[in-house]
């Protein structure tokens, strides 16, 4: 996809992440395509999706641009978001418009470096590249390595960012001030107000997943909050 057109299309907009792994109740490309359709009706400008089947199904029903990734675990490697050329080639063949890949500085034992993966995408496709990072330095390094967009996806997930605030609005703000490469606010954004705040702090667009497309987690948040109150009420009566 043409970079200028894509960036204009998503500027100040919501990208909905529609993902359900095999252990989740809504796993399956039919469910994810329906989720994406609902997201489109609600105004989403783009969909982030995991895996060839989901990407193809979502593209067909929504015709929205797709940020594609493949979550793949490799032995002894902490990198699982599009870790190697194998997943990249599958995403190119599936028709992803943007390829999201881990751009952290974590070890990649026996895998290609980030620079090699970027070169491979440039040579073999027109896909744009979204670098998923967890720290400010990783964001700047990803820009220098040549990604088209930087996303804060992995803040609070890498071992060295476990204590970051969530959502990581300070990271979004710092990166947006430091670079002209578009910063995508992603990870643990739970409310419309947080999404709007991310835009105010300089994010080019916002990705929301769980709060929209993982109903089992949203349900649990309601249940937990209600339980806290019922427990408190019960105690005050004793
Ligand atoms: C850390 C990781 O593996 N994140 C994944 C990346 O694609 C997805 O599981 C998230 O749902 C996505 O980043 C959106 O974030 P949230 O669901 O918090 O709105």
TrEMBL record:
Q: Which GO terms describe its molecular function?
A: N-acylglucosamine-6-phosphate 2-epimerase activity
One GO process term, biological-process aspect: N-acetylmannosamine catabolic process
Record keywords: DNA-binding included?
no
Top-level taxon in the UniProt lineage: Bacteria
What EC numbers are recorded for this enzyme?
Answer: 5.1.3.9
EC class (word): isomerase
Mind telling me which NCBIfam families this protein's record contains?
PRK01130.1
The cross-references to PANTHER family, in alphabetical order and at most eight, read: N-ACETYLMANNOSAMINE-6-PHOSPHATE 2-EPIMERASE-RELATED
Q: Under which name does UniProt file this protein?
A: Putative N-acetylmannosamine-6-phosphate 2-epimerase
Organism of origin is Anaerobacillus isosaccharinicus
* The gene coding this protein: nanE
């Amino acid at each position: 996809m043409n970079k200028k057109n894509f960036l204009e299309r998503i500027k100040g907009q919501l990208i909905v992440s529609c993902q359900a792994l095999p252990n989740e109740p809504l796993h399956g490309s039919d469910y994810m395509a329906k989720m994406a359709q609902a997201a489109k009706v609600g105004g989403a400008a783009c969909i982030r999706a995991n895996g060839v089947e989901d990407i193809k199904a979502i593209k067909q029903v929504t015709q929205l641009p797709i940020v594609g990734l493949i979550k793949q675990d490799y032995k002894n490697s902490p990198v699982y978001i599009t870790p190697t050329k194998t997943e990249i080639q599958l995403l190119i063949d599936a028709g992803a418009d943007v390829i999201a890949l881990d751009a952290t500085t974590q070890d990649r034992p026996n895998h290609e470096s980030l620079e090699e993966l970027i070169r491979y995408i440039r040579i073999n496709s027109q896909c744009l590249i979204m670098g998923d990072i967890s720290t400010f330095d990783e964001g700047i390094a990803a820009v220098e390595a040549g990604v088209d967009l930087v996303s804060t996806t992995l803040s609070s997930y890498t071992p060295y960012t476990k204590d970051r605030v969530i959502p990581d609005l300070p990271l979004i703000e710092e990166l947006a001030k430091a670079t002209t490469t578009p910063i995508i606010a992603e990870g643990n954004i739970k409310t419309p107000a947080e999404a709007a705040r991310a835009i105010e702090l300089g994010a080019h667009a916002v990705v929301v997943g769980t709060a929209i497309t993982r109903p089992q987690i949203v349900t649990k948040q309601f249940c937990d909050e209600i339980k806290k109150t019922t427990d408190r009420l019960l105690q005050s009566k004793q």
